[in-house]
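Interim report, section 4.2 (structural modelling).
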Amino acid sequence: MTKIKAIIIEDELPARELIKSYLKHQESIEFAGEFGDGFSGVKGINDLRPDLVFLDIQMPKLNGFEVLELIEHNPAVIFTTAYDQYAIRAFEKSAVDYLMKPFSEQRFAQAVKKVEEVIHNKQQEKQLNKLSENHAGLEDQIERVAVRSGRNIHVIPVDEIVYIEAEGDYVMIHSTKGNFLKEKTMKFFENHLPENEFVRVHRSFIINIGFVKRIEAYEKESHIVLMEKGDIIKTSRSGYKALREKLSL
Amino acid sequence: MLAWIVATAIHVLVLYSFYLDNFNLALTDGVIFDGIFALLGLSLWYIVGYGKTSQKNLINSIINQITSWIVVLFVWIGLALLVVNVFSENREYIVFVNSSIPWRVISGTFYYFILVLIYYLIIYYRNLNEKQLNEEKLRGMIRETELKLLKSQINPHFLFNSLNSISSLTISDPKRAREMIIKLSDYLRYTVSADKDRLLPLEKEIGNAKRYLEIEKVRFGEKLQFRFEIDPQCNHQLIPPMILQPLYENTIKHGVYESSEPIEVQTSCTKYGNHFGIVIRNNFDPEALPKKGTGTGLGNIRERLGLIYGNRELLKTEKKKTAFIVQLMIPINES
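Predicted structure of the assembly:
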């Protein structure tokens, strides 16, 4: 039987040391590397293609859930966290296991055993995306969006998003830093972007009202929005009404 | 009501057996006099009730009682005489009634004071109940606030992550694990025993801040650096306990946690005339997205400064391009 290839993504050294020392007693696991932040973690997953990732939730710049949004390969995941009521609720809805710090070696072994079974039964973690949706769904508002372009990762603060356009199963995020494709729904962004800054003006468009330059009448009874950067956005009748309300016109 | 029926019955019996031979007359007399008094008694309730709210002092309420006593007696006897004179055709009875007025005054006074006494008892009992209820509510509120305070003092992230570090150290470096347990215990002891109303010398508060940062340094390693420059004159100055703690927690949360580069936390204290100024300064990673705090930490400090020194503006914050600076001016307590 081939060994399970595992990596650790965790920003605190003692926490990494602890997992490594527990791993020494796990015959079925081959330790393949450790990463101290989310960015190198994403790269590590994409390069090493591990079967299992021990993933911390709270990390600088890119948190554990954002890491999962950006990877091209779906490993089994065991989350580690100290205290995060949102995360715990998200885990409970999914098939992955999680460890609450500090955790015992027995509890650790139990989580590893669960992963062995999952990998053995080939029921790979298709649910990871759903998990991050669940997690975000529990938070009221997002403050940033992590995106990938090629091998680069960008974290876009929501105030740098000019508008979002629907594009099949994806959305195109038009930001001041460029355009990025993201696998999320319009509904998600409509619900989680700050309500006083963003308006869904059309089935296919959510705009940041901070970047609105002008609103013009277009044909009869229809309007278009001109954005600072020169983009022209169509509005639907209800979208136009919502925009007017938000701008208190 | 029942009490009045009993009183009337006694009245009738007494009259019947001692003064009047005619039972019907005795009954009529009882119903008239006691019925009228019962009605007056109801209005008395309002006088006593009103007295409760406007009762400024004892003399006032005694004067009130005497006035209402005289008024009640006059009205009572007046009304009863009127009824008797208008409706009764029995001469003998009318004569009896007229002759019994002094006796009526005495029994009326007796009724009056019994009634007032009962009313006061009822009001007193009600107040007592209300008071107990209020006290219960207040106690609940205090418990809740204390709990909130405790929760806000001990940050669960800090506690669980520290315990996890200790768990790790028990394998790699048991001696350091033991040291860290002691530091964490000292920190927790200071936190839970700090009496919010009593001021403590700055050196104690600084000592606690050092412990806190040392514990965090085990987790963050080289990423967290700190330095203290405290003017010796500051050490004995008094400061509200745990007032600096939220500031250090902020430097960890917004500085160290969000950065991949080392963060240095500098603390200095200088004495100026009748104030001493504490400055906490940390650099931050300008590339890290500012995590929006809830502002409760700074808000709570301002709130406390307002309560203790009557000035919320003693705390000033300044955000530079790569550094965050907090300045706290504490008035020197001459005593």
